[in-house]
Structures
1.
Amino acid sequence: MHGRRKAEHQAALLARSEAEKEAAKNKVLKYKQLATLALQQRREAKEQEGNPTITTRNGLEEALTLSAQLLRVNPDVYTLWNHRKEAIVASQVVRHELEEADTGEAEGAGESAAPSTSFLKTELGLIAECIQKNPKSYGAWHHRRWLLEHAFPCTASSSSSSFSSSSLLTSPPR
């Protein structure tokens, strides 16, 4: 890094204990295994592209659990963000949740709008975690923008909703 002499950096690396070196090596191996599984899962989903099998919110969350774990460790893997986009589009869970929220508001049930957008809140929470870990992660920022553009189209009904996109553009949830 800037202002550090190469000898100091090498001395710090050599001073690490064998346990620390082994722990780092195990962490890298586990990450590689999870990345391989995630990419295999994506290939299988691409092969079944003709008929999306994800029909519920729980099914979508199960399909995206592995990518969420990997993105929390390294939010710069753009392939995983694309996998999430493809799964969300294929499942159409977001569209169904927003339709439920709109019908709930039309009937005057303001309380039903909060649970219906829970997938969006969890997805935005994951994105916020990734951005806090690495604020320069283009993949996370692009996924956030894509999610907000596709989940909240510019229509009169969505602008009047109690769960608006303008509230999500402010600071991330804590």
2.
Amino acid sequence: MPRTKAFDPDAALDRAMELFWSQGYEATSIEDLVDATGVNRASLYGTYGDKHALFLKALERYTGAGLFASLDLEDEDKPVREVLRGLFDRLIARCLDGRGAGCLITNTICEFGARDEAVVETARRALARMENALDLLVRRGQARGEIAAEDSPRAIARYLLNAMQGLQVVAKVNPDRRALQQVAERTLATL
């Protein structure tokens, strides 16, 4: 009969995700993970695999609970520009929340670049989900005449995603609320 886990794997994964998010992959040791999760090394390995496997699981967890997970695509009555404005506002607030964490996906892309195919693929899927959510919003805005219809909704979604990712990278070295809000305003003004 398999042994019952003495810890909550989802809660431990959330704590590991938070640690990777705040410190990055390279700066996070197994000992840091043991301390943050309250799970001993053998149980961490037995449940999640090695540090790399745990990191990939944390990235997947983040994409299900990140900024875009809170994007209410079902509220079709809200003007699309208002939804996008709220998204930028939450993004800027996250960049300036004092932790300096920004977005785990953005941080991961900056830390890893293209050197780890599994990480690249996980980040690529996360960005595709974000792009698809933005594409749906843009299409809705175009159908209602809120966004110019002559431009490709996919191209606009990619532009918005690029602006959001760039804003987060810039915020790492220049966490100036006014500057970040100017980027958001200028981005939204092009729609």
3.
Amino acid sequence: LIRTRHFPDELQGAVVIGGVYDNTLQLHRLGFTDGAWRSRHDINLIPTRNKAFRPCDVRLGPDGAVYFADWYNLIVGHYQASYRHPDRDLVHGRIWRVVRKDRPLVQPADLAGATLPALFEQMDSPERWAQYQAKRLLFGRDSQEVTAALDAWVARLEPGAARDEYRRLQALAVYEAHEAPRPVLLQSLLRSP
């Protein structure tokens, strides 16, 4: 899911998918119609005729670039050929990085050793990587310490303000990770526009 300042506004919310079977790296647009999310294949970011090209894991990096693992194997699964088939490559694979040449990369957030308030501030970062990593670090910290500091942080947020509503939602996920339910916060968010 593209959510980084490295890519232009028109690509925000698009999804990059590895086409393992058709040997492409694809860009899809998401839309919500008739009560369901739909994906529309927009373009192939990387088309190739190389049948060993197998982009299988796509992530945003700390610099805002798209990184993906290329399995680089002629054989896709186990049902087409034996595990001992000579064409099954067990040693090769590649990591690729896709960047916009006309845009600067993002300065990665410094999260190592960050304070709890600094991690809370990253929960609504425009950079998906920073947001994900901040929450991951919060999930791993001491529950009593995190929930006490989070209670104080949430108390300073303004219910109804768009940015703060999103922050309160992110806080709810951290409470959930620490098995510390906050029913009043949940009820408030269920009524949020």
